[in-house]
Amino acid sequence: MILAVFAFALAGCNQREESKANTDFLYFDVSGYFKKEAVRLKKLNPDVTKAVSVNGKIEEKTIKIKDWTKELAIFSNADINKASWKGSFKIEKSNLLERYTSDNKKIPVKNVSIGKTGNKVNRVEIVISNKNILYSSGDTLVYYPDSLYEIRKHQKIKLLAQKTYQITGKLK
Asked: What's residue 107's pLDDT?
């Protein structure tokens, strides 16, 4: 019994240390930023004019987004603070821009650019590229808080025609 209590206490300590260690990010916290944006946009509940284009055919609607976490998931998933990627990004910082770039073939996130006015983020652009012998794809994700988000994707599967997708959400 005492051994079980000790094991639980030890596991609890390790989890706290692990989460504590994750607060010191080497790079911009893409995932954390978009989680906060999802919460903020859920409270704001704006109308969104959403346009979806597949190979040039466009459909547009004005809607309310019910799940901002899901809507912005592709942005959140481009987290560059993975432990295995530590040290893989070149960092450039100025008062107006933070840029993180990687040319590592094993890392799909190639570029994260954060535009700033003071300490406030005014633009996020993420470039993702995946390639293997049968498949290649590229995503360009752009986010302007309180105004627009855009996802542009192209994919090419060997022996099939290239497909292009674009999703644009304009916040009102």
From this structure: 96
Name residues of the chain where pLDDT drops below 50.
Answer: 1-22
Of 90, 85, 83, 92, residue with least CA distance to 108:
85
Contacts of 170 (CB under 8 A, 6+ apart): 48, 49, 50, 51, 147, 148
Residues with Cβ within 8 Å of residue 58, at least 6 apart in sequence: 51, 52
Phi/psi of residue 22, nearest 5 degrees: -75, -5
Could you count the other beta carbons within 10 Å of the beta carbon of residue 155? 15
Q: Is 140 in contact with 154 (CB distance < 8 Å)?
A: no
User: Do the beta carbons of residue 46 and residue 37 sit within 8 Å?
Assistant: no
pLDDT in tens, 135-159: 999 999 999 998 999 999 999 999 9
CA 2, chain centre distance (Å): 44
